[in-house]
Amino acid sequence: MRNIVFFLALLITAQTFGQEAMRRWRKLNQVRADKFDLVLPEAMRDNKIDMWIVTNREGNLDPLYTDMGEGYVTSNAYYIFTDIGEERIERAALGVGGYLLEEGDTYDYYGSAEELREFVTKRDPKRIGLNISKNFGGADGLTHSAYLELTEILGAEYAKRFVSAEKLVSDFRSRRVASEIAIYGEAGEFSYTIAEKAFSNAVITPGVTTLEDVAWFMKDEQFKNNLGSSFGMPSVYVTGPDGVIATSTDRIIQRGDVLMLDWGVGLMNMFTDMKRIAYVLKEGETEVPAGIKNAFDQGVKVRDIIKKTIKPGVTAQKAEDAIYEALTKAGFNKMKGFNQYTDLDKTDVIIGCHSVGNWGHGIGPSIAFFNPVRLGYELKVSNLISIELFAYTKVPEWGGKKLRVPLEDDALITERGIEWLYPINPKILVIK
Fold first, then answer.
1. CA 186 to chain centre
2. Cβ proximity of 272 and 380 under 8 Å
3. Calpha distance 250→258 (Å, rounded)
4. Any residues with CB less than 8 A from the CB of 279 and at least 6 apart, and which?
5. Nearest C-alpha neighbor of 268 from the set 17, 27, 4, 47
6. CA proximity to 289, closest of 394, 197, 195
7. CA angle, residues 213, 214, 218, in degrees to nearest 5
8. What is the pLDDT of residues 361-388, one digit of tens each?
9. Of the N and C termini of the chain, which has fewer Cβ atoms inside 10 Å?
10. Domain annotation covers residue 221
């Protein structure tokens, strides 16, 4: 009887894992079909690219491999998209196939890599987009040797038509369809629930638990749920009057610590980026000290202004200018650079509202000083964006030194402006 029960448990577990794997695969197929049907035509035509060739080699896959549907690659393989003047972009896979790709049913033709020259010549594209990018790693998948081989196969005449697909890749990835947004919301649920459990007494015992213990708990939760990450080890750190003391080290968490974390999870090719803050009560304390709570509240006010200000249809640079104008009018001080806070009796602020999506730091328009090229991109309805800020406010309990409050949660740009994708950080978490 015991053996039968054990066998049934194994069978149920196997069926459960199979169902989850298929569920995720089906959702990715839906994303790809929607992107190819709805986003790819406008992305190619906006960038005046007639044909887009994404190359892959066994052991050296393009960053867009999952977006394209994956598949089995032996030597060389090509995903080829051609604007043939119809509503639908033609899709072909040469030298790549297998169950996962072919059963996904999003390509019109499967053939051999040896057909490349004939395939291109027959369609005679005027501009051929290749994944060559100076600015974005995600759009820079073409290796030098693969470029030389393409030039040799297609000949000098077609090589003259090669152009960078940098902006095409940015547009294709950052203009979202409903199926992607649904996945992102699911990823966000994993992200914040794991983070908020990590910053609780379920995980932390003051005087015993270390910062790296918390980080490893979060990594283990990723492992259990088959989640990826763009950032490696979660950043779990202590901030004091003189700034960050330690990050994901063997430093033991003490009473009176202000704890912060920065991390994200990856689910079905969608990656989050978010932060949380906690305070460890001292003996005899029953709530967060007033000065620390006020600093957090100032950060929330900044977040509210950012949310109300961002609208689609303008460049990220114009959005940034509008945000700082609104913050200044509300009495906040714009910092000259990251961590360059002042001794003013004002809250110093710097924002970094960057693109998110297929990495924790995405490839679309970005309202962030560290993404200068993408400051020039237009904010579009359906873009995913991290609402990230750093607010520095004086804390009386620290002798007037400033506490840096980092807030970050992920949102969607809609016609109405910013809409959150999951419950955002509402308060400082309390560890007793």
1. 13
2. no
3. 16
4. 257, 258, 259, 288, 289, 292, 428, 429, 430, 431
5. 27
6. 394
7. 115
8. 999 999 999 999 999 999 999 999 999 9
9. N
10. yes
**Residues forming a β-bridge with 73:** 96
247 and 338 part of one domain: yes
The answer to whether residue 115 is domain-embedded is: yes
- Domain of 343? 176-431
E-assigned strand segments in 194-242: 235-240
Helices (H), 310-372: 316-329
pLDDT tens for residues 6-60?
Answer: 444 544 454 555 799 999 999 999 999 999 999 999 999 999 999 999 999 999 9
Specify whether 212 is located in the same domain as 158: no
Instruction: Tell me how far the alpha carbon of residue 245 is from its chain's centroid.
Output: 27
Of 172, 192, 219, the domain-final residue:
172
Amino acid symbol at 249: T
Compute the Cα dihedral for 390, 393, 398, 400 and give only its sign: positive
Residue 3 to residue 15: CA distance in whole angstroms: 18
DSSP assignment letter at 358: S
Instruction: Choose among 422, 264, 423, 276: nearest CA to 358.
Output: 264
Q: Which pair of structure tokens corresponds to residue 213?
A: 């213990």
Reading the block at residue 321, the tokens are 């200018």
Whole-angstrom distance, CA of residue 294 vs CA of residue 301: 11
Q: Among the three residues 154, 172, 190, which one is the final residue of a domain in this structure? A: 172
- Does 338 map to a domain? yes
**Residue type, position 137, single letter:** G
The answer to whether residue 275 sits within a structural domain is: yes
The CATH number of whichever domain residue 121 belongs to comes to: 3.40.350.10
pLDDT single digits (tens) 95-138: 999 999 999 999 999 999 999 999 999 999 999 999 999 999 99
